[in-house]
Design brief:
Elements: E1 6-11, H1 16-26, E2 37-42, H2 48-61, E3 66-72, H3 75-79, E4 84-87, H4 99-120, E5 126-129, H5 134-143, E6 153-155, H6 158-172, E7 179-180, E8 183-185, E9 193-195, E10 200-203, E11 206-209, H7 210-214, H8 217-221, H9 223-229, H10 231-239, H11 245-260, E12 268-273, E13 285-293, E14 296-299, H12 307-331
Parallel strand pairs: 1-2, 1-4, 2-3, 4-5, 5-6
Antiparallel strand pairs: 7-10, 8-9, 10-11, 12-13, 13-14
Bound molecules: nicotinamide-adenine-dinucleotide and (2S)-2-hydroxybutanedioic acid.
Residues 11-12, 14-18, 42-44, 47, 88-90, 92-93, 109, 130-132, 134, 156, 159, 188, 242-244, 247 line the site of nicotinamide-adenine-dinucleotide (NAD).
Length: 332
């Protein structure tokens, strides 16, 4: 029997991530090749015409899984009945801007959209915030939508996770699908800590630790980390626009694994509400290694954190605490 369609909201759908993301969702990349979808696309009135153009292209693409499109500038209409919300709408970082610069513009959007989601989304709606500052926007959304379970509000750090996999695969000249269990700790910002201490590579002789195969701690503790931390800025410098196709693909990976589960023995990185695991302060949206089963994520427990890593986990937590305070000051 055919499955019931899932309603997926994409905010900021007339923007560049939206343009890359909606066809991926309509093709089944996010929820699987047998899952029909109804797309809800929200943007603001100045982008209404462009949004309608995206809707026209979705119709023209004749995606078999796409059972309907709602394209609107009305936040209530956009949020009504949605099962999954991908929050991309907001003001993007431009060359030379720090994420903090976009904070005041974006947190007020997330406060108001929190109320609309809380009132109108389907029960158990899963939310991922993509728009920067992603962790803090997600925190504001969670706090202003108290009836949405806190486990349902997350932010995207899968792009950073995938960037780390990509760097290791290039360094070792191996397939990216053979590298697993890197971790992004903390903020989707330049203080994030990409950690390879538990990462492995599938080789003909079995799974081997990344550290052993790379055999270059200076690179792993230096250039590798800064390359991943600075990759968003490098893309902005090269394209004069922030990353879009990789961000859209990562958003699909995030929801795919959350809904359909992570493969046995593999974890992924998600920005989730901290419960104090790994001595990360509770009450922040912080990126952790997680496994997913039956539509629920759980933080991977018991990983050894050495002194080098500890400092980096604390530094990015510190930045998130400061962002949280700044966000609240922007809202008052
Ligand atoms: N977390 C990540 O990994 C990651 C990666 C790349 C980009 N980003 C962030 O994603 C966001 C979107 O990037 P983009 O390149 O698509 O930007 P964009 O400017 O091309 O698109 C943003 C869209 O949001 C719309 N918008 C603005 N305010 C809105 C509101 N209140 N409601 C609904 N829509 C609204 C704009 O009209 C625009 O169409 C930015 O904040 C960017 O920094 C995050
Ligand atoms: O760095 C940015 O603001 C863009 C985006 O978050 C990215 O990581 O590509």
């Amino acid at each position: 029997m055919a499955k019931e369609p899932v309603r997926v909201l994409v905010t900021g759908a007339a923007g560049q991530i939206g343009y890359a993301l909606v066809p991926m969702i309509a093709r089944g990349v996010m929820l699987g090749p047998d899952q029909p979808v109804i797309l809800h696309m929200l943007d603001i009135p100045p982008a209404a015409e462009a949004l309608n153009g995206v809707k026209m292209e979705l119709v023209d693409a004749a995606f078999p899984l796409l059972k309907g499109v709602v394209a609107t500038t009305d936040v209530v209409e956009a949020c009504t009945g949605v099962n999954i919300a991908i929050m991309v709408g907001g003001f993007p970082r431009k060359e030379g801007m720090e994420r903090k610069d976009v904070m005041s513009k974006n947190v007020s959007i997330y406060k108001s959209q929190a109320s609309a989601l809380e009132k109108h989304a389907a029960a158990n709606c899963k939310v991922v915030v993509v728009a920067n500052p992603a962790n803090t926007n997600a925190l504001i959304l969670k706090e202003f939508a108290p009836s949405i379970p806190e486990k349902n509000v997350t932010c995207l750090t899968r792009l950073d996770h995938n960037r780390a996999l990509g760097q290791i695969s290039e360094k070792l000249n191996v397939q990216v699908c053979d590298v697993k269990n890197v971790i992004i700790w903390g903020n989707h910002s330049s203080t994030q800590y990409p950690d390879v201490n538990h990462a492995t590579v599938k080789t003909p002789a079995g799974e081997k630790p990344v550290r052993e195969l790379v055999a270059d701690d200076e690179w792993l503790n230096g250039e590798f980390i800064t390359t991943v931390q600075q990759r968003g800025a490098a893309i902005i410098k090269a394209r004069k626009l922030s990353s879009a196709l990789s961000a859209a693909s990562a958003a699909c990976d995030h929801i795919h694994d959350w809904v359909l589960g992570t493969p046995e023995g593999t974890w992924v990185s998600m920005g989730v509400y901290s419960d104090g695991s790994y001595n990360v302060p509770a009450g922040l949206i912080y990126s952790f290694p997680v496994t997913c089963r039956n539509g629920e994520w759980s933080i991977v427990q018991g990983l050894h954190i050495d002194e080098f890593s500890r400092k980096k986990l604390d530094l990015t937590a510190q930045e998130l605490s400061e962002e949280k305070a700044l966000a609240y000051s922007c809202l008052t």
